[in-house]
Amino acid sequence: MGKIRVVHYLNQFFGQIGGEDKAGVGPQVREGPVGPGTALQQALGEKGEVVATVICGDNYVADNLEKAKREILELIRPFKPDALVTGPAFNAGRYGTACGAIGQLVTQELGIPVVSGMYEENPGVDLYRKDIYIVPTLDSARGMRQAIPAMAALVLKLAGGEEIGPPAEEGYLPRGIRRNRFAPETGAERAVKMLVAKLKGESFATELPMPDFDRVTPNPPVADLQKAVIALVTSGGIVPKGNPDRIESSSASKYGKYSLEGFNDLTPETHQTAHGGYDPVYANQDPDRVLPVDVMRELEAEGVIGKLHPYYYATVGNGTSVANAARFGAEIGAELKEAGVDAVILTST
Fold it and tell me: 33, 40, 209, 321: least CB-packed within 10 angstroms?
């Protein structure tokens, strides 16, 4: 067998076209590796070759998903690849979704394996884990050095027709697919061994992990809006001009609490967004588009609500870990409850 032919898919940033200002660019193709593709080519070694790189803006895919997938497929097809690599996308949601959606179509239409790399909380993981192989990565590009070799190793194995073992052995995220195989011990024997290990406090791995659903019981509706105190909370990154608390544009480690006293409207002179991962132009032109202070003041003046809470809370949702988000929510919720707030309007991007 000759060299494995690999096509690599990248977004506009890793494809070296530009940042968020170029997120609307349409699909285009380059022969050979580009950007992270150079590292991918090194990891593939003499066994594989990155024959082409397809690049497309994240917004273009998100806004024209079905059209973009087909256009990208037709750019890939002439190269007759043995495998497709998408990303790695780390914790970039639009990028991860694009990597998964394109990979899904390619494996369906061309019948070739697709390997991507994503942080486990990337929405692309749950959407497309059954369609493509996803190697776990860190939440940002600082994990590139670890991700690329792991992806390359899996590509070589898949495209080479080798048997692929379980996720824990091969280094990909579980796909929710179960296959029958022969085991040296019966199910009863294995179950007893696991039970004994559990009783002894020893480690063991279940053969049938159950999904962990985070169920939240909704609170009862507000009894009387005309007497209610309503607070605004946002993960859309709206902060006072200059971002005084230096809330990170991605993977936020903090949130801010800011006064609304004297504000009936948010303007570009007083507020801005600190959020990365989406075009900030419209939010900066009118921050009320993300944090609707103007509308809430109107409702307050009309008597629809009792009062707008004098403080709002803001953080950035872009790549922020579930653990940090849960901590923010618990702390903000405790403060709002102590302040006598009856309900919260939570806005995002």
Answer: 209
Q: Does domain 4-170 have CATH number 3.40.50.2300?
A: yes
Specify the residue for token string 């200059």: 242
> Cα(89)–Cα(97) distance, rounded to whole angstroms?
9
CA distance 290 to 293: 9
CB neighbourhood size of 336 (10 A) = 19
Angle CA(86)–CA(237)–CA(17) in degrees, nearest 5? 35
Give the chain's mean pLDDT: 92
> Exposed e or buried b for every residue in 82-110, given b needs 16+ CB within 10 A?
bbbbbbbbbbbbbbbbbbbbbbbbbbeeb
Per-residue model confidence as pLDDT tens digits over 147-180: 999 999 999 999 999 988 888 889 999 988 777 7
pTM: 0.70
Number of H helices, E strands in the chain: 11, 13
